Amino acid sequence: MKKKSWIWSLILLFSIVTGCSGGNAPQAGSDAGDKPSDNPPAQDAVTLDFWYGWTGPEAEALEALIAKWNSANPDIQVKGLSQSDYQKQLTAITGGNPPDVASQFGQNVVPWGLRGAMMPLDDYIAKDGVDLKDFVPAALSTSQHEGKTYAIPTAMHVSMLFYNKDILQEAGYDGPPETISDLKEYIKKLSVVEDGGRLQRLGLWPGMDAYTFSYAFNGSFYDEATQQVTPDHPGIQSAIKLSKEIWDQYGSDNLDRFSSGLGQYMSAQNPFFSGKYAMTIDGEWLPTFIKQYSPDLNYGIAPIPYDESNPELKNSGNVTTSVFYIPKGVKNPDASWKFIKWMTEPEQMAEFTAALGNLPTRNSAFSNPLYEDVPGFKEFLDYSGSENLKSFPASSYANEYMTEFSAQYDAILRGTVSMEEGLDKVKAKIQPLVK
Q: What dotted CATH number matches 4-16+159-318+397-433?
């Protein structure tokens, strides 16, 4: 069994990828979907099964939109099902009994699309004149490969630095760290360590988001010219060295002991909410969670610290997405497309993402007044316009690449392999998949 500290590292490493809350998942026929319709379903109505990964309040927001669609479209009725086990989606598709519409994470689009699990949407896009130029390029790129569009991104996720203003002020800081050097200084000063190395507070969890910080050092995971995976790129190595340097200041045993007492992410005991972390790297949904679980927290949001030797790389970061797609083999793809097209129009996109505290993927949705009451939206919206944001390379082997990289990243931090050995293992396992 993996140790709890690595579980927390994964949460921090991939929290931007998920952007989903926990809680009891409303199933098909939830309260939102049972509201009376202005237009009762037609007797010969097409019924679409819609599987989505959101749960709790986020699922309720989605069910409200489904009810809105059903009310206006008696000929196409949608039944929502909160199903966060994405392997079941794939099993249903390969078994010939797929849902009619489904959600996914952007990093899974190209692998699934190339393997025939997702229908290309380009003919529908062209026929209905959907303006792909209205989508943020970094977000749209997660759904496209070699001229084909396999999904429509509905929400965009980016990480920023959150900091506890009270803790920083007590330490003599009147603002967040701006550079990598500042960050290392802050972490050391803000951490509280008892005799014997027992941790009471961490300035920042050292198993940081390796993707975000790799881009802060201008790292690249793939060389298009040579068609080689590059987990050993100098920028990626710099990001790992940063985390390793901080990790070694405290040691795996002390970090494991500390992490075993941390509260749940989706609760008032979240270590950032409770003051166990002075700073954290997290996504645009966190302010909405803070409002729900820790409304009195005095916090700020800041850009990811940059490498002072490369100031042109300010405001770097990793972009991920949540998407809607049509599984291969559905009986009514035209109806499925009509629903997806409607869901990803600016008005519905804003209604959904504002409820979740996510960023929309369409430029025309940014000015929707619904976002005025979303905490942290302005900071993340401004940040989302940075030219230094990147996405993990879309490929058929992206999942295998990220899984192996994460495993070796953990091993490097814990000292069970050297950085050279760990990154060589990633390259040896993934490069054969390129072809």
A: 3.40.190.10
Residue ranges of the domains in the chain? 4-16+159-318+397-433, 19-157+320-385
Question: Rounded CA gap, 114 and 41, in Å?
Answer: 36
Q: Which residues contact 416 (CB under 8 A, 6 or more apart)?
A: none
For residue range 181-239, list pLDDT tens digits in order: 999 999 999 999 998 889 999 999 998 889 999 999 999 999 999 999 999 999 999 99
Cα–Cα nearest to 222, from 83, 75, 392: 392
How crowded is residue 24: how many other Cβ atoms within 10 Å of its Cβ? 9
Reference 163, options 305, 267, 265; nearest CA is: 305
Give the integer Cα–Cα distance in Å for 19 and 309. Answer: 32
Q: Round to whole Å and give the CA distance between 384 and 361.
A: 10
- Report long-range pairs for 415-420 (Cβ below 8 Å, ≥24 apart): 415/248, 415/252, 419/237, 419/240, 419/241, 419/244, 420/232
How far apart are alpha carbons 205 and 255 in whole angstroms? 9
At residue 390's C-alpha, the angle toward residues 389 and 394, to 5°, is 160
Q: What is the CA radius of gyration of the chain?
A: 22
Using pLDDT thresholds of 50, 70 and 90, give the confidence band for residue 138.
confident
Look up the CATH number of domain 19-157+320-385: 3.40.190.10
Q: Do 4-16+159-318+397-433 and 19-157+320-385 show the same overall fold?
A: yes
- Give the DSSP letter of residue 26: P
Tens-digit pLDDT profile for residues 378-420? 999 999 888 898 888 888 898 899 999 999 999 999 999 999 9
Distance CA 210, CA 205 (A): 12
Q: Identify the helix (H) or strand (E) that includes residue 49.
A: strand 46-52
* Section 115-130 average pLDDT: 96
